[in-house]
User: Fold this.
Amino acid sequence: MPKRKFFIFDCSKAENCCDKSQYNEAGTREKISMLMHLLLCRPCRKYTSKNTKLTSLIKKSKLKTCSEEEKKAWKNRIEKEMAKK
Assistant:
């Protein structure tokens, strides 16, 4: 029975492993364990599917974050507008 623990773990660990594997941070043992878990757990399969779609959409969107200078400029502008009112 101890060998089954190698392949099967609880849903919270599967969820974490799913996230890690999408960013190539999961090891081989974790990936195998996750796949075995997904064979038996429908909710985790759905989570993995949705997570994969979300990651794909984020990559396609080519989101750009603001620089610190842009954030400061926006903050100053908002503070000036708030002071007028």
Q: What stands out?
A: Helices lie at 2-7, 11-22, 28-40, 42-61, 68-84. The chain has a mean pLDDT of 82. The radius of gyration is 21 Å. Residues 42-61 form the longest helix (20 residues).
